Recover the amino acids of this structure.
């Protein structure tokens, strides 16, 4: 695929970039200063046939970009979520889209369970307490936390990641977890019911439009002052202002969050709370998994270049 | 029959632990409580005074952690004591050879196991460090947190496959980890690979978890050799006792990068934590709290009373530990 013109939207991974550089004709969008990006795209429009994006909000792949690239054939996402790509426009233009499912399932599930333990057991808080010298200053005192094992865990979204989370929490004696498939309408009473019978909710659903705001005020209230929310899906799944208020006011017991409405913008209120654990969207952030994701991106590009079936197509 | 108010005295109980008002009230409703910490007396005087009573106490409820040692001197001072009830899975503060019977808690193992898993995820995936990163405003300023390492599929070696070690194994299996263990003897029904010593176990593990009781054989069971065998990509988790690990060697190994990280709930000299550890991002430090959840505390108090009542009514203890 040496003649394949590939546009990389932002730095993602050194190994990936090196391989793209070695095996394709790589263009880096960030070589142009922000205000000159339009010019850059116009100058290279005819040679760009593929775009590689990351994941998360603002990762690129919107209609504007697609429209600026008349020779675009494929958008390859270095991520499992593809909500940043305008799929409708892609279908209209015949542009293929791939993502990186499966290779990151274990990592995201591991982090979700880590957050689910850390929120009630306050491990990061204890770590801060010890580092600040408070354990010694308070003569060996540290308060009680809340148990994790045996608690009722409700998983929203029982896809690959949700299933992997379910398998892990069952090892802790958590009663058989319940899945909640979300039907195709905005108000979802059954998620509220799930919250009402759960000690903790884990959001692991894929970023579809109908799951936007699925964790609403009612769901948060149903979860209650001893309930815990873990989110490894998308910030958009949760009504963030409601969540923040509920945590600050003690109406929700705790939370473990890997994703936010607008990353990397974490509300100040959350940063001051001890009953939350905050992670910078690192669900798939291990060396092993990122290499596997990079290899899958490269494999999809190569398949496309050789007119072979794509490995993990979305469109 | 004499009424409860004027009738048979309640059985005596030596209380050598701090506790809350509710629990003391529950104890006083059933026993004649000799409260050590409330007395303000020195231990020998307190014991002598109790022993001098016409109906000296036959039971003792003792705090774990080593503040009170139930050793020969203790038992000689109050020979009437026939049952020692303590908290925590560890019995290193109780000289079992000197004691007839004792009660402890099986119920703690789940909380300690959960904490061990939390520490392991924490040290491999840098959850606490990343949380600090976010709170310091570094995510917008410096971008994504550096890549960490995957937990699923790692080789986990557990030192001590008692109730805690078994619970840890069961949990980590669900993460796709390969479990091996070392204990005094292989466990007949354990479906995991046995290694004959801690060094061999460390050499074959990506993560080494210390979950054994503290006794002469396990004091400093993790020393320089074991740490070197664990190696520069290996991590250590300790939820047992600080002195199961040679703390100085551990600090040196971490400083020199001879092991990759550690998750520690216990230390040699609590609450003192080696200052060198406090600046490291590849360690997770917690305040010997693995067992202390609200749920286990409630269970614990019921269990302690249950054991005491069983003793006084001549029934089998609920959770006995027999001398080795």
């Amino acid at each position: 695929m040496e003649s394949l013109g590939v546009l990389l939207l932002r730095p993602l991974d050194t190994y990936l970039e090196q391989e793209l550089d070695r095996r394709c004709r790589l263009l880096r969008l960030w070589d142009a200063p922000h205000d000159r990006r339009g010019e850059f795209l116009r100058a290279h429009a005819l040679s760009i046939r593929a775009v590689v994006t990351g994941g998360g909000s603002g990762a690129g792949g919107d209609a504007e970009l697609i429209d600026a690239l008349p020779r675009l054939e494929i958008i390859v996402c270095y991520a499992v979520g593809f909500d940043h790509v305008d799929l409708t426009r892609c279908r209209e233009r015949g542009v293929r889209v791939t993502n990186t499912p499966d290779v990151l399932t274990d990592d995201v599930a591991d982090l979700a369970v880590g957050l689910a333990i850390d929120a009630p057991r306050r491990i990061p808080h204890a770590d801060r307490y010890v580092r600040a010298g408070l354990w010694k200053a308070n003569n060996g005192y540290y308060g009680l936390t809340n148990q994790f094992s045996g608690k009722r865990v409700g998983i929203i979204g029982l896809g690959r990641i949700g299933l992997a989370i379910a398998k892990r929490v069952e090892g802790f004696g958590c009663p058989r977890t319940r899945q909640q498939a979300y039907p195709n309408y905005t108000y979802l009473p059954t998620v509220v019911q799930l919250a009402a019978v759960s000690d903790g909710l884990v959001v692991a659903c894929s970023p579809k439009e109908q799951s936007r705001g699925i964790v609403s005020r009612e769901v948060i209230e149903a979860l209650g002052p001893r309930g815990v929310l873990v989110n490894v899906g998308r910030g958009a799944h949760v009504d963030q202002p409601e969540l923040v208020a509920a945590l600050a006011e003690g109406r929700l017991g705790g939370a473990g969050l890997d994703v936010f409405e607008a990353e990397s913008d974490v509300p100040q209120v959350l940063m001051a709370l001890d009953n939350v654990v905050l992670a910078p969207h690192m669900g798939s952030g291990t060396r092993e998994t990122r290499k596997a994701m990079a290899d899958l991106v490269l494999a999809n590009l190569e398949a496309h270049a050789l007119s072979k079936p794509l490995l993990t197509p979305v469109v | 029959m004499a009424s409860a108010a004027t009738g048979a005295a309640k059985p005596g109980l030596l209380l050598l632990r701090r506790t809350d008002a509710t629990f003391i009230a529950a104890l006083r409703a059933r026993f004649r409580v000799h409260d050590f910490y409330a007395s303000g007396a020195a231990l020998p005087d307190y014991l002598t005074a109790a022993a001098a009573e016409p109906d000296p106490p036959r039971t003792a409820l003792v705090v774990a952690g080593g503040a009170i040692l139930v050793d020969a001197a203790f038992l000689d001072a109050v020979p009437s004591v026939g049952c020692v009830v303590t908290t925590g899975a560890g019995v290193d503060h109780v000289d079992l050879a000197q004691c007839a019977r004792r009660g402890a808690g099986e119920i703690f193992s789940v909380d300690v196991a959960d904490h061990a898993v939390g520490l392991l995820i924490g040290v491999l995936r840098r959850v606490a460090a990343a949380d600090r990163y976010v709170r310091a405003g570094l995510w917008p300023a410096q971008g994504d947190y550096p890549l960490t390492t995957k937990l699923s599929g790692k080789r986990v070696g557990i030192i001590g496959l008692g109730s805690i070690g078994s619970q840890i194994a069961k949990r980590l299996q669900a993460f796709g980890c390969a479990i091996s263990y070392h204990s005094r003897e292989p466990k007949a029904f354990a479906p995991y690979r046995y290694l004959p010593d801690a060094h061999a176990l460390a050499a074959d593990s990506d993560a080494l978890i210390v979950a054994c009781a503290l006794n002469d054989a396990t004091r400093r069971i993790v020393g320089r050799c074991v740490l070197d065998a664990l190696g520069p990509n290996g991590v250590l988790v300790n939820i047992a006792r600080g002195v199961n690990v040679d703390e100085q060697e551990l600090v040196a190994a971490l400083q020199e990068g001879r092991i990759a990280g550690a998750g520690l709930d216990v230390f040699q000299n609590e609450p003192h934590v080696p200052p060198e550890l406090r600046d490291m991002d590849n360690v997770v430090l917690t305040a010997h709290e693995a067992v202390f959840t609200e749920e286990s505390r409630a269970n614990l108090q019921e269990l302690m009373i249950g054991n005491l009542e069983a003793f006084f009514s001549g029934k089998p203890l609920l959770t006995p530990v027999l001398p080795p």
